[in-house]
Every structure is written in structure tokens, then in C-alpha cells.
Amino acid sequence: MFKISKLRSLTCASAMFVAAVSATAAYADSIVASHYGFLLNTAPIAVAIERGEFEKRGINIDEVISSSGGGTSMRNQIASGAGYGVVGTAAALAAYAEGHDIKIVSANVMTLADLFWVSMPDSGIKSIQDLRGKKVSYTKPRSTSETVLKAAIAAAGIPEGEIELVSLGKIGAGLAALERGDVQAALILEPLYSGRLGKYQIAFDLSNLPRMTQTVGVTTAEFAKQNPDKLRAILEARRAAVDYLYEHPVEAAKLVAKAYGEKLTEEVAISAVQRMVEIDYWGRGGFDMAGMDAMLESLRAQGSWDGPIDWNDVIDDSFLPKDLQAK
After folding, report:
1. Where in the cell is it found (predicted)?
2. Is residue 61 within 8 Å of 54, Cβ to Cβ?
3. Residue 223, Cα to own-chain centre: how many angstroms?
4. By CB neighbour count within 10 A (0-12 exposed, 13-18 middle, 19+ buried), where does 247 fall?
5. Handedness of CA 297, 301, 302, 306 (dihedral sign)
6. Which residues of 300-311 are buried (b: 16+ CB within 10 A; e: fewer)?
7. Which residues are paired to 138 by β-bridges?
8. 185: Cβ–Cβ under 8 A, 6 or more apart, which residues?
9. Which of 63, 67, 271, 325 is the S-S candidate for 13 at Cβ 3.0 to 4.6 Å?
10. Digit-coded pLDDT (tens) for 144-162
């Protein structure tokens, strides 16, 4: 938990979020943000806090509840009134499938270009084909990393089971396993990659997959009904922070480094943020339905989703700024 500087690591972002909002109808100024303080998917939250974007809109965020991602159950009970959560799309859809009143209210990351797996430089592993008969790590079951890893293997024409997939939780745990030789490829993202340049080589990326929406913003139907103005203010603040990241990447990176603390230096933050700007990493909130469909199809192909979906039951873009809503 960042208060705003202390981290409480919890198991599953979507579970934490549902429990948090269901636990109380009162709004405590907190946000659930998967990988906050470590990865850049939640950098807009950090920038919005540091620039006072929430305060300008009457929202006082004094706590960011982080997690290591994924979404296998709804068992983590958090006594918090968090009305907004940043989670993986796969985790959000898993929560919806389990009967929770999840509403997806923003599309936050709509590319897979930041996700890639690395190997050790002397391993001879330079493609996904080189990993047949070997072990590859991902974070957690039902996480985005598991979903897209399975999709990439299938797209490469490699039969299921020919590569052993190992869930190791945090990304750092996967990299440690790679260095020990326990796995032969591990997931890495920014800013970890910029902070470890030269230590690994890229084994494979996800360029063989279609564009997908990997991270979304979620609330519950109850919270949205009771607190529509607060939800709009949160989404407006996040959008303003994304604009600032694209318009002033160096200054924004310094704010991210400040918010994340000693784990992220300014130098590494600047390099990582500039790379994210180049790949058009952060979405302002509006939905790319082709990207949502592509993620769902990956889940369906893996047997993690059965039957059709009515996106109108899951997505509500009415809390976004008008120019980001579907026409």
C-alpha cells in the first residue's frame, strides 16, 4: 500500500478491488492499482497524484493499494472504499464471469508492445521456437501474462504442452528463476528492462499477436450508481495525467520516480517512459473494441471463456469525458 509511499502487496487485483468496493459504501480516498510502484501501467495514477489532478477535482487519494496482478478468486477482503481499480483485462473478465458486478469503465493499455520474454545471453535462445521442451515463466493464473503467453505459443504453431509454463508470481521472481537456470525465458516489462540493459537478451515478443487491450479500469455497478461524479472525476484526472505523460515525458518520468520511491531512479524512469511514449502505451480511457474482442478470443481459445458476451453488460463508457465515449 502506498500511503502514498508504503506498499502493501496483495494477491489479486480484481479480487481486491471487488472486495474493497463491496466492503463499504463509504468512499475512502483510495485506488486499487495492479503493479503500482513497480511497473508503468499505473504511471498515470502516480502522475495524477503528484500533479494534484485528483485534488483539483475534489478527490483526495491518500492510498494506492497495489498487487502483483492476476485474478484467480475473490477471496481477498479489503476494508476499503476504493471505487476504481486498474487491473488486467483477463482478471476483470474473470471477475465478471464469476458473477461479480464488475463494470469496465476505461481502457488503460491497448497494446502488447511492452510485453516480451528474455533469456540469458549465453543460452542460445533467441526465438519462441528455441523454447520447445523448456520452461517459461509468467506471473499468475488468469493474468494477462498467462493469456498472451499461451496465445503467442499457439500463434507460433507450437503444440500445447511442448513448452512448460511456470507461474512464479512477481516478475522479479521470474527473472531470478531465469538467472538461476530454473526457467529458460522470463517475462520482463518497463522499467525493469531499462534498469537491466545488457543483462538479458530478448527471446521473443508478441508481434505475432493482434493488438489487444491488456489493462482496464473497473468499478462496480453499485459504486457507479452511488458515486457517478466521483468516478467521472477519477477518469478525468487519469486522462489529464496521460496527456501530460505524452506531452512532457521527461518531467512526467521524474514524477513517476518520485512516487515509486527508491525502486526507480530518475534515469531509468526517463528511459522507460520515453520508450512507452514511442509505442503509444497508455490509453486515455476510450475503448478499442477490436482490442477487447481480441483479448476475449484469446481467453476463449484457451478454454478460459465459454460462450458469447454482451459487451454492453460489461462495459460502461458513460463516465469517460465526452470525446472518449463511443459515438
Report:
1. Periplasm
2. yes
3. 22
4. exposed
5. positive
6. eeeebbeeebee
7. 167
8. 117, 118, 119, 125, 131, 134, 135, 136, 137, 178, 203, 204
9. 67
10. 899 899 999 999 999 999 9
Q: Say which residues have a Cβ less than 8 Å from residue 219's Cβ, sequence separation at least 6.
A: 21, 83, 84, 85, 102, 103, 105, 231
CA distance 302 to 45: 32
Strands 63-67 and 9-10: parallel
Q: Which domains does the chain have, with CATH numbers?
A: 9-111+212-324 (3.40.190.10), 119-205 (3.40.190.10)
Cβ neighbours for 217, distance < 8 A, ≥ 6 positions apart: 84, 85, 86, 104, 105, 106, 107, 108, 235, 238, 285
Label residue 122 left, alpha or beta by phi (over 0 means left) and psi (-120 to 50 means alpha): alpha
Task: Give Cα separations from 190 to 73, 115, 121, 173 (angstroms).
Answer: 27, 9, 19, 15
Tell me the per-residue pLDDT of 225-282, one tens digit each, with 9 for 90 and over. Answer: 999 999 999 999 999 999 999 999 999 999 999 999 988 999 999 999 999 999 999 9
Write the DSSP symbol of residue 117.
E
Close Cβ partners of 119 (under 8 Å, ≥ 6 residues apart) = 125, 126, 130, 178, 184, 185, 200, 201, 202, 203
The conformation of residue 315, written as its DSSP 8-state character, comes to B
Over residues 7-18, the pLDDT tens digits come to 333 334 555 555
**31 neighbors 234 (Cβ within 8 angstroms):** yes
State which amino acid sits at residue 219. Answer: T
User: Which of the 8 DSSP states describes residue 291?
Assistant: H
